[in-house]
Amino acid sequence: MREKLNWNQLLCKKRQRDGLGAAGSRNAFEADYDRIVGSSSVRRLQDKAQVFPLQENDFTRTRLTHSMEVAAMAYSLGKAIGLELEKRGIFQRGQTEELSSLMRVTGLIHDLGNPPFGHYGETVIRSWFRDWFNKVNPEKLGLNPQQANDFQYFDGNVQNLRIVTKLQTLNDALGANFTYSTLATIMKYPWSSVSSQLVSEKDVKKRKFGYFVSEQGLVRDIQKCTGLEDGMRHPATFLLEAADDIIYICDDIEDGAKKGYIEWDKKYTQLKETYGDKHKKLFADIDSKIPDENMDENEKKAARVRNFRNYMQGYLLNSVKKVFIDNYSLIMNGEFKGELLDIEKDLIKDIKKITAKNVFSCHEVLSLELVGDKVIKTLLNEFVPAICTVDAKELEDVSNRAGKLYSLISPNFKYIASHDYAKNRKKELEEISVYDKLHLIVDYISGMTDSYAVNLYKELSGIKLPGKGST
């Protein structure tokens, strides 16, 4: 049976703007990686928490180290799948290299859109806008239902697409100018905020979508180039999500054990009692790796949890590879439902229970979330009403409060908000819609690092006096 999707389109090299392309021996996706790895968007990840508040040591992972590990796992998955497809006569070696390079760059950038304070920051932004829209009718602000949903269902994955296509500017308003295949792969939920897939989800917290109204036209171009339909994931997206899950599931265990929140030897024994018969080789391999007796006792404990992490990640990688190949036709026809790791859902569920009970409910993490709640809500309370309810003349006047707040926003975000993409010109301030003003504010706040957000909160709250270069 002929599949609906084909890799010649799925590995599309087209970009929004014609550029120099891959130089020398680089393929197009290696060029994407090289143009983003040193960017400010990637660098900011080093000051964004993964699970625990940012540490003064290198004990636990930041959002940057997490992304680096996901990039490595995604690369390995891409290569493994490519080699399997070569065996079946579907891929040439060059396509294997392209797929693995595509996976590496998307692994690196998959979390660029996450706001300060981890995933809880997304929850705060969503709840703030739902509350605000209950008080201020979106229609009276000139927002249609899709535009309002873009904010009350805000998600870092959606913001990610906006960052790499607009906000991470190189020379113009087209962002990093990535290949359309890279952009397609990072869209985990390729439908709009008013699609049936989103609205049918009863749990508001689980309502996910893939692109804002502001990027909808570009998404149509991406789908046309890659052969995807609305609602259809790029096959590489399944691999990217699996790579992310494999990394955080195991890394959260390691970080939690290192911090002393997980009694690892006890939890490992319980996992082995439950799954040892089903996964004999996996647990035998883990047990065969014995730390040197001359190591410090704490180092032995760290080594044991590290061995679990390493072997479990390798095991899950092979599981994902098998599921992808076994379901290849379904995936290539846009008919595969669920996730590649569902085959190990019971084991993964029990591993997640360990972190949920011992890590995500600990004082450090809960305190971080409470701080994030206070900081982000305060910033939105300050910026949104002031900037979205006054005219351009007031915003330009730094002698009043709205003008002062508007002047704090980075010029890069103002440049994007004022760019008329249809006519490729700069809009006057009075021409900027409320929808674009909301994006301007959310671009600014969600792009903050944890430290920057806390410092700005302190300054606006009068807790701390501004210092040179503090904002």
Automatic annotation (TrEMBL):
Domain of life from the UniProt record: Bacteria
InterPro entries linked: dGTP_triP_hydro_central_sf, dGTP_triphosphohydrolase_C, dGTPase, dGTPase-like, HD/PDEase_dom, HD_domain, PHydrolase_assoc_dom
Keywords: Hydrolase
Residue intervals of the HD domain: 63-249
Gene3D superfamilies listed in its UniProt record: eoxyguanosinetriphosphate triphosphohydrolase domain-like, Hypothetical protein af1432, putative deoxyguanosinetriphosphate triphosphohydrolase like domain
Keyword field contains Amino-acid biosynthesis: no
Protein name: Deoxyguanosinetriphosphate triphosphohydrolase
Species the sequence originates in: Blautia hominis
Lineage: Bacteria, Bacillati, Bacillota, Clostridia, Lachnospirales
